[in-house]
Amino acid sequence: MQNILITGGAGYIGSHICIKLQENGFQPVVFDNLSNGHRDAISPNIPFVQADISDDAALNRVFEEFKPAAVIHMAALIEAGASMVEPARFYKVNTAGSLNLFEAMRRNDCRHIVFSSTAAVYGNTDVDLLDETMQVQAENPYGRSKAMVETMLADYASIYGFHAVALRYFNAAGADPMGRTGERHDPETHLIPLVLQTAAGQRDHIKIFGADYDTPDGTCIRDYIHVDDLADAHVKALGYVTSSDEPAFEIANIGTGQGCSVKEIIELCKEVTALDFNVVQDARRPGDPARLVANPAKANELFGWQPKYPSPRKIIEHAWNFYQANIQRS
Ligand SMILES: NC(=O)c1ccc[n+]([C@@H]2O[C@H](COP(=O)([O-])OP(=O)(O)OC[C@H]3O[C@@H](n4cnc5c(N)ncnc54)[C@H](O)[C@@H]3O)[C@@H](O)[C@H]2O)c1
């Protein structure tokens, strides 16, 4: 069985990927400092190293002990808003931390990697479907910290022989369909869990930031990707990067190609939960693009991926099931 090192594996998306890796016959090895993750989000039978990606000695030990065939690199700070206030933290963890990991990979002769990038690299555009050939123009330090890592990976591929894929996720949402793990960010900043917390009475109201965008109902449109589909994309991308030792670097969007507005998400949450709640309209937030929707064709061409849950209703149903079952967990 091949070991796969997964940095940030105790986080929201990482914990789903661990399940998918095990289901597909891989042995995940989780490397996470638990700054935002949860030890109990991953099975106790998964090797777990609590350490920081800036820690060279800890990285060396994990490569020497587990000899991973590849790395899935997810460890990062994820709040775009916070990156506008403290950009240094984002460049340190997301950019310098990634460089540190890539150097540890080089020292230990591991050159296959799947990297968690983000649709935030695209910034504000007016195209309907975003594709990977477009110029990146991130609007915030979070997006730029990830775009820099893509640039580094391109160089590590052409000069040091890495075989790498950067997956640009759109809006990850939902929970494991069997309820084994789900979203437990603290603080929570993502729309669907915030709306569900409001439906459950844990919040007084949900805010819509901007209802005057140039979209059919005036609210922002996003591409919500089920976290189970996202996890599946990693297993397929892993197959692609480990299929050859030839140097390569590719970028692939992971989204559904379907846009859904903030108002539509709120209405769907009302339907799924059968609960009503207060919705308050507020001003636009700086840097929020009106529309971010993927053209997901390349992920299909490159490694045969397509989403199983393209409609947001299932995403919300699974998120709601997890939320209700875990309402007391932090
Ligand atoms: N959630 C989304 O919608 C979304 C969208 C696009 C991209 N991404 C990317 O996906 C990845 C995972 O996101 P998530 O939503 O699961 O976030 P998360 O915060 O739940 O997971 C990130 C994990 O990384 C760990 N971590 C952070 N800094 C670390 C460090 N210095 N050393 C070791 N571990 C560290 C945290 O403890 C956490 O477990 C991130 O790289 C994020 O940028 C997420």
Brief write-up:
It is built from 10 helices and 14 strands. By secondary structure, the protein is an alpha/beta fold.
Would you kindly provide a written description of the structure presented here, covering whatever features stand out?
The chain has 330 residues and is α/β, with parallel strands linked by helices. The protein has a domain of 223 residues: 3-Layer(aba) Sandwich (Rossmann fold), CATH 3.40.50.720. It is built from 10 helices and 14 strands. The radius of gyration is 19 Å and the shape is globular. Nicotinamide-adenine-dinucleotide (NAD) binds next to helix 1, helix 4, strand 5 and strand 7.
Entry keywords:
330 residues; alpha/beta; Rossmann fold; three-stranded mixed sheet; globular
